[in-house]
Structure formats: structure tokens, C-alpha cells
Design brief:
The chain is of the alpha+beta class and about 400 residues long. It folds into 2 domains: about 130 residues, 3-Layer(aba) Sandwich (Creatine Amidinohydrolase, Chain A, domain 1), CATH 3.40.350; about 220 residues, Creatine Amidinohydrolase (Alpha-Beta Complex), CATH 3.90.230.10. Helices cover about 30% and strands about 20% of the residues. The strands form 5 sheets. It has a 6-stranded mixed sheet with strand order 4-3-2-1-5-6. Strands 7, 8, 9, 10 and 18 form a 5-stranded mixed sheet that branches. Helix 10 packs antiparallel against helix 11. The radius of gyration is 22 Å and the shape is elongated. Bound molecules: zinc ion (ZN) (3 copies). One zinc ion binds next to loops.
């Protein structure tokens, strides 16, 4: 999802401070009154170091993005002040953080070195590396910083950090799956409230998107991160940004929204229709629903990722709409709304127990409407556990 396309009027409902991070939510806050998710960050760092050896890496630098909270519980503020966590094979990891942000870091399991406004954090972090190291860099580190590192250490070989971090993050532990399950159930409750509580006809897409964000927060999310409401022809644009189109009788409306609960994302899509659907709408919807079922049914350990895409796509092709299914079938989900593994033709990686991802086939008829049905699925020993359970039927709204 495009994270920033629709932070729909969030300030009205919550104060989503970009600094209230993923990891802090997991480790410190007690969001549901009793339950607290704490992860064993030390064990994760040990696994990471083993993975770094396998990949021939001397060091890994993590900055903004979800890798850092995965390994530390701390989410860096994205700014021109560098935060960087330096993990080397030889010594203990060090977090370099701007002095004024150091109080945000929970004390714990790694060394924190605060740098002052007059320090050069790139030089400080680079001093822990050797001239000819092979160093991986978190995918989301700003290029401005990476270029400074590259200039400081011209003989280092640079690699993308996700080569190693995805190997760990892709396989969720039971606590992570439970967090994703809770987020999924929360959006399921929103979906269930839509027909009785939300009015569509005569209102703008952005107003409906605003209501969805409010319901998402009401059902326990910490942040409503995105919301697509695509009515009529706008639904044929899969990542449509809700706008001023007034929803009218007969419109098919794609609602795709989600947020973060205890750091973990929800992401679900249902398609509604305002008033009685015509036969084309019913036909397309049932093809997409069958594709969603086929995709989920294909999930099992050892099955290549691309096979889930093939299973879902085949149903839509057989129904005659293959050319109108214009995106991959799904994406991994966790601390990020889109992460590995991707369910797309060409990805031969076998699914494993603990992988979590969306199954979201869609059909998009330009100038007319779109239909998408999206569920989050966990791969288990027995096959799929579909975390979303809200009705997938074409629901008539008013
Ligand atoms: Zn999407
Ligand atoms: Zn979605
Ligand atoms: Zn999705």
C-alpha cells in the first residue's frame, strides 16, 4: 500500500506521532489492557549474526524502516539526523542516535551512543567498520547517508540489507502471527459494521474513507495507515486515492484499508455495491471470490509462491477476465504492509510455516468498476490459516 496516500484525517481521531514507533508499541505499551507483546531481541540479533556469516557479511547498518524495530524494539525517526544501528560479526551492536532522541530509546540489550549536533555520526559509525568489509545496508536508509558512508569507506562492498533481514522477518514467530491475527480480526469487525453504519450514496469517497479510518481506530488499531475507497470507474484503479467523487446508486465500491495494531499491519479489501447489482457485477464478483478461495486453498508449506498466484489467476482467466487482473496476487505483511514474500509469477521460493501474506485477486474494468477481495493468510503445517474472516460476499449497501 502506498503508506502516505491516505492518512485520512487521522489527526482528528488520534495523534499519530511518527515517533510512536512500531517497536515501542510492542515492547512497552499495553494496548488491550492486559496483553503485552515483547520479543526476544537478543535472540533475533544472534540469528541475524548467523545469517550474516552465511551471506559473507562483515556488518549490517540499519537506519529508518522496519528492520530496526524488528531487531531492537526501537523505531528511528526519519530525518536528516542519522540513526544507525551497527551490527558487526566481531563485537556487540551499537546504536548511534541523535542526542536529542536518545531519551526515546528504551534501555536494554545494546549499547547506545548519542551523537551531539557537532559530531559526525557517519564517521563515528564508520569507525566500527574495516576498509575492505562487506557491509549490508537497510533498504530504507536514506541515499544521502549511504553516499556519505560510501565516500568515507570507498573500498567497502555494499549489499542490500533485505538479503539477510528478510530471511528472518519473513518467518513469523507465533507471537507475531497472534499480533497479525488481532489486527485482522479488528478490520473484520470494521467490515461487519460497514453495511449498517456507513452511508455511501450521496457521499464523497473521501468521506467514506474518513469513516473507515475512524472505525479502524474504534476497533483497536493504534494507527489507521491507509484507506482506498474506489467508487464506480475509480475502482478500476487498484490504488485509487479517495477523492471528491460522489458515490451514486449502482456504484461498485472497492474498500481496501488497514493500519497498525501493536506494530503489526492489517490490510483487507471487500467490494460493496450501492443498490442492486447488475449481472456483470455479480459475475465479476463471483469470479474474484472463486479466485480468492483458490489462492488461499493452494497455500501449504513447500508450495512455491508463484503457485498461489497461478491458482488464483487461473480462475479469473477461465472466467474470461485474465487481462483485467493487472497485479500480483499478494504480498507479505508484518511490520510493513508490503514485505517479502511476494506472490508473483517467477517467485519460486517455497512457502514455509510462519509466512504471512495477502491473497488479493482483483478484476478492473476501465471506465466501469473494479472488484478486489483481500485476505491475510498465514501458512501453517496444515495449509492456510486465513486471518480475515469477514464475509466475502457482495454486500449491498445504501
Ligand atoms: Zn495494493
Ligand atoms: Zn489492501
Ligand atoms: Zn494488500
Amino acid at each position: 500500500m502506498l503508506r502516505d496516500i491516505a492518512r485520512i484525517g487521522l489527526s482528528i481521531f488520534s495523534a499519530p506521532d511518527p515517533s510512536t514507533g512500531l517497536g515501542e508499541g510492542l515492547s512497552r505499551r499495553d494496548l488491550n489492557g492486559s496483553r503485552k507483546v515483547a520479543f526476544d531481541y537478543l535472540a533475533r540479533i544472534e540469528r541475524l549474526k548467523a545469517m550474516m556469516s552465511t551471506h559473507g557479511l562483515d556488518a549490517l547498518l540499519l537506519s529508518v524502516g522496519a528492520d530496526l524495530p524488528y531487531f531492537t524494539g526501537y523505531e528511528a525517526m526519519a530525518s536528516e539526523r542519522l540513526t544507525v544501528f551497527v551490527i558487526t560479526n566481531g563485537s556487540d551492536p551499537v546504536l548511534f542516535v541523535p542526542e536529542l532522541e536518545a531519551p526515546r530509546v528504551a534501555d536494554g540489550h545494546f549499547e547506545v551512543r548519542a551523537w551531539s549536533e557537532l559530531d559526525d555520526p557517519v564517521a563515528m559509525a564508520a569507525s566500527l567498520l574495516s576498509a575492505d568489509d562487506v557491509v549490508a545496508v537497510g533498504d530504507h536508509m536514506w541515499s544521502a547517508f549511504l553516499m556519505r558512508f560510501a565516500k568515507t569507506l570507498p573500498h567497502v562492498e555494499w549489499r542490500p540489507g533485505s538479503e539477510v533481514t528478510r530471511e528472518l522477518r519473513m518467518r513469523k514467530d507465533p507471537e507475531e502471527i497472534e499480533a497479525l491475527r488481532q489486527a485482522a480480526h479488528a478490520v473484520d469487525r470494521v467490515m461487519a459494521r460497514i453495511p449498517s453504519e456507513l452511508r455511501f450514496a450521496g457521499r464523497r469517497e473521501r468521506e467514506v474513507a474518513h469513516d473507515l479510518a475512524a472505525l479502524t481506530l474504534d476497533e483497536g488499531h493504534d494507527v489507521a495507515e491507509f484507506g482506498i475507497v474506489g467508487a464506480g470507474p475509480n475502482g478500476a484503479s487498484p490504488h485509487h486515492e479517495p477523492g471528491d467523487r460522489v458515490i451514486t446508486d449502482g456504484d461498485v465500491v472497492v474498500c481496501d484499508f488497514g493500519g497498525r495494531l501493536q506494530g503489526y499491519f492489517s490490510d483487507s479489501t471487500r467490494t460493496f455495491v450501492v443498490g442492486e447489482p447488475d449481472s456483470l457485477i455479480t459475475e465479476v464478483h463471483s469470479a474474484v471470490l472463486d479466485a480468492n478461495r483458490a489462492g488461499r486453498a493452494a497455500v501449504a508449506p513447500g508450495v512455491p509462491c508463484q503457485e498461489i498466484d497461478r491458482a488464483a489467476r487461473e480462475v479469473i482467466e477461465d472466467a474470461g477476465y485474465g487481462e483485467l487482473f493487472i497485479h500480483r496476487t499478494g504480498h507479505g505483511i508484518g511490520l510493513e504492509v508490503h514485505e517479502h514474500p511476494y506472490l508473483v509469477k517467477g517467485n519460486e521460493m517455497p512457502l514455509e510455516v510462519g509466512m504471512t501474506f495477502s491473497v488479493e485477486p482483483g478484476v478492473y474494468l476501465p471506465g466501469r468498476f473494479g472488484v478486489r477481495i483481500e485476505d491475510i493468510v498465514a501458512c501453517t503445517e496444515r495449509g492456510d490459516e486465513t486471518l480475515n474472516q469477514a464475509s466475502r460476499e457482495l454486500v449491498i449497501v445504501s
